[in-house]
Amino acid sequence: MSNTWKRKIYLLTLISLLVGTSQNIFVGILDQVADYAGVTVPAAGQLVTLFALANAIGTPIIILATAKLDQRKQMILALSFTVLGCAITVVLPGFGFLMLSRIVLGIGMGVFIVTAFSLAAKLAPPGHQASALATVTMGFSASLVIGVPIGRLITETFDWKVIFWGIGLLCLLAIFAVAKMIPATKGEAPVPLGKQLALLKNPKITFALSVTFFLFIGYAVFYTYITPFLNAVSPMSERAVSLTLFIFGIATLIGSKLGGFMTDRLGIARTLFFGMSVNVLALILLSTIAGPYIVTFVLLMVWAMAAWTSGPTLQYNLVSLAPEASGIILSLNSSVLQLGMATGAGIGGLVTGGLSIQSISLIGAASVVIAISFFAISFGLFRSDAKVRSN
Fold first, then answer.
1. pTM of the model
2. Tell me: the pLDDT tens digits for 134-143?
């Protein structure tokens, strides 16, 4: 079998690294952005929230509006949004234009994610779809491992806007690469509003999206405040913290790839249950026995791999539930994920302000337990339907 499809998947993965960096790098340079805009760091932090909300709300609207386009054109449109957002960031001055740029970049990233995952599932041959989704997911994961450290290194020598000059120019080149390498895959027919509502009324889809929501609440509650957590339970130098977070990013890459591998071989149910169960256990142990650096380090790496194992599996599960409307379902999943991240970060802020910092891992574990409960109900519904069909 030709490996041409793999080259296309790797192109989507590389571009995913770029658009993922446009989101993740902002957290690492908030202090510099705040100084530039003349606002406080918490005010600059609202730009992160604005990105997530634009991603969650704008993505399904744009996907619906462009449903008649072939998916190559949708991807070029998404990259054009990213180029435009970067241009606004570096050319137009003031906090107001920064807010506008984050909205444009959030929509661009959201549309790209949905289109890339839908294309990956179509480009990969049978038996390799989950692995293809996991590979594309690795691009976004790599933005934590590669994009953020390189971005911070650049800001030590150059102005922070240089990062967005680079992302914008590379995404411009990516537009030409997509036009040449990605086939004009037919987009899905526009889904009438009634049918969309019918999809949401499907209990299996509703519960599957609920799993995404609570799983990423649990992730964001802990990850958003991971640095103060590490300094509280296992004090270490700044260099040690940076190295730990770098290796953490590598663990997320491994977890993402492992999730696709396990899904292709063990199935959706076993992979999700295993990943979320280990997720809960690691979070509980981080709150109870973390202290010595080596213990904290090992638990953190286990949690990172378990948390990211579920990502490609959840996406593949949703596509299998509604293959005739994969773009709409994946866009809903992306919106739910972003809302979960925003909710988790907000809850984490309340917890760290009112309780001990160690409590965030327990709150995160509780949210993942809720996700497991929704998954169990969803899987029960799936088995019940199978029994009815067999009779």
1. 0.71
2. 778 777 777 7
